[in-house]
Amino acid sequence: MPVRQILTVLGVTNGVTHMQFEKSFATKNQHLLTISIPTYNRAKYLDLCLKRISEEIESLGSLERCLVGVYVSDNASSDETSKVIGQYQERLADALVAVRNGENTGPDYNITQCYESANTPYVWIIGDDDVLLPGGLKMVLDTLKGEEIDLLYAGNYWFKGNYLDKPARREKSGTIKLNNPLDFVRRTNVMLTFISGLIVRSGVGVKYRSELRESNLVQLSWVLPLLRDGKHFAIIEDWVVAAKEANSGGYGLITVFGENLQRIANMILSDRPALTKAIENGTIVYFFPGFVMDLRCGSSKFQDKSIANGLKSVFGNNWRYFIFLLPLIAMPLYFSRYYYYLTRLIRLLIGPYLI
Q1: What is the pLDDT of residues 55-112, one digit of tens each?
Q2: Which residue segment(s) compose the domain that 316 sits in?
Q3: Are 170 and 269 in a shared domain?
Q4: Band of the pLDDT at 27, cuts 50, 70, 90?
Q5: 169 lies in the same domain as 186
Q6: CA 320 – CA 299 distance, rounded (Å)
Q7: Cα separation of 306 and 285, whole Å?
Q8: Is residue 269 located within the same domain as residue 237?
Q9: Sequence-ordered list of residues with C-beta below 8 angstroms from that of 328, at least 6 positions apart, any chain
Q10: What angle do CA 7, 8, 11 make, to 5 degrees?
Q11: Residue among 123, 130, 127 at smallest CA distance from 107
Q12: Could you write out the DSSP letters of every residue in 40-64?
């Protein structure tokens, strides 16, 4: 249910202040946001993930704490996941709900369960190896309380060792409000697949769920309908989430972020071709160059064996492929490294104009 409708049910009139907003939700024991974590056999990462979420909730004022609930879906882990969850159930008490599946149902089903189990207006699915940064939850709540949002993107960076080791690039600050989905997708494009960076409205996209369940992109069953039908979007430019780098794999990168992403976007956004094209363009310009270099250097966990044939098949009719991908594939590795830095410079200078 949209926030405005909930406020109406609670008897809150126009001109409500943040304090009145929080009191209204607290009085009715109504959360605004569910932070949902799908997990499987990664107790060490889950411990840090829940630790940071707990610290963020505890840093809020008493009324704001009532706006946030935590949900963990354990996909039949065989490590110490249950023990970790138990520790944080004691710490967060009724704010944390955990379920354990009887068997491993696969990642897409577990992610879907995290989304569909939320009975709050908003859901934030966070990967069990990703970390909320200090002050991040407060920024998200302030944005959601400020006005009705369909899709909220939270700034993030990738880390290898310590999650507080920020990248060299300068952090931006502030929140951008957008009413045009094309403006939003030009800024986010392929990152619409990144669950930890998206806070979304609940109860969306059921009709697409079963078809996407084996795609490794089931989250698009609710993200893309919200993009297509939504009217209010926001981007928090501050760094809100630190994402664990190179900590997943076991599937074909080109299959998932090439074939599957294009097929799903064309299906759900069939009447919005400009949105589909912007996602494709961003995938070519921002996403695949780095992974092509990782695959060529042998440092990727993903399973693609034929980079050239796969990327040409998916993107060969897009001129950006010939600038940002083909040279990295065709050149000797020594020259590809230098060309890769040239593409980074191009993105820095005119990236948004290429999407």
Answers
A1: 999 999 999 999 999 999 999 999 999 999 999 999 999 899 999 999 999 999 999 9
A2: 250-355
A3: no
A4: very low
A5: yes
A6: 25
A7: 20
A8: no
A9: 289, 292, 293, 296, 336, 339, 340, 343
A10: 90
A11: 127
A12: SS-HHHHHHHHHHHHHHHHTS-HHH
Is 172 found in the same domain as 274? no
- Residue 230, token pair as written in the block: 């939504």
Q: Provide the residue count of the chain.
A: 355
Q: In angstroms, rounded to a whole number, what is the distance separating the alpha carbons of residues 152 and 155?
A: 10
Considering its fold, how many domains does the chain have in total?
Answer: 2
Query: Cα(12)–Cα(211) distance, rounded to whole angstroms?
Result: 40
264 lies in the same domain as 204: no
pLDDT, one tens digit per residue, over 274-324 is 999 999 999 999 999 998 998 888 776 666 667 788 899 999 999 999 999
**Are residue 238 and residue 282 in the same domain, yes or no?**
no
What CATH number is associated with residue 134? 3.90.550.10
Of 227, 248, 269, which residue sits at a domain end? 248
